[in-house]
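Same chain as my last thread, 153 residues:
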Amino acid sequence: MKSHSLAKQILLVFLVALVGYACVFNWIEHRRRKNGPWQVTFAALADGTAIVVNQPALQLTNITIVFGGGSAPTNLPQTVRFEHGRAASFALPFGECVFVDAIFLPGTATCDIFGHEIQLLPRTLTIDGVEHPWRSGEKIFLPTPPPAIVPAK
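reply #2:
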């Protein structure tokens, strides 16, 4: 009789732990993915190649970074969603992604495009190490190649 009651208790503890684990896992996954990923559209414009950055949950729309003089592939436009962590670096329609942290979306994405380092952070946009505040609808023009950086003395 005692072994039968012990088996019931072990089964009950296992079921409670399983249900608890499923609830906590689903809650964490919801928190992790609720804001959605960065959406970057690679496009060819009349005045050069460009990326258009969107992140609807942060109310960031149509932030365009134009690379003057860059040559673009013919299969544009293409949209890349930085929603999964991948081994860095990987090719983009033009340039490459050198870092992605997609644990809690939108996360961080760092790309090297025509020699410019573009870093997408929820707090700010960084271009070649210089912070630019997010402004929806803004158009930023960058020369290709980037200006030479003179080291500090």
